[in-house]
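Hi R.,

Here's the chain you asked about this morning:
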Amino acid sequence: MNTIDPPEAPELETSTWFNTESPVTLAELRGHVVAIEAFQMLCPGCVSHGLPQAQRIEATFANDVTVLGLHTVFEHHAAMTPVSLEAFLHEYRITFPVGVDAHDRPGGTPITMSRFQLRGTPSLILIDRLGRIRLNAFGQVDDLTVGAALARLIDEPQPQAGETCDPTRGCLAPLKEPKQ
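And the predicted structure, written out as tokens:
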């Protein structure tokens, strides 16, 4: 039995958001299953597999999974600007919220990419309702594998106020102090 808890997802560090009226934070999505597709618009694997898969996740699990895009540019910075990304999202009919991964130094690795220890794009991150990373996959992941992983996360117990949950033991109410 694995006794290591999944790591908590770090917060997103973005400079701009598209397809949403306000910035999205993982803290506000606690209690939801979240799928993040990290991509670059000039990445062939992202265009042919990663983004279409994210669109299928959104269509299939619309009521159960929040899908986010993370445009995490680590190469060809001059070509992949927010203006170019806006046109790309329109042309490819990407409707889920997409954040632009922020940089702390020009030409360097984006902040969120570093926080999540992403190796490149496309990358798929699945986060459970408790805000823990349950999948961090680089490259092409089979739809059936992703669907099964999402079904497991959706079926896990949801914590109620004051409860803590564990996938193997279920949800437990906090211990009450004995009456004196």
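The two ends are 39 Å apart (CA to CA).

Let me know if you need anything else.
M.
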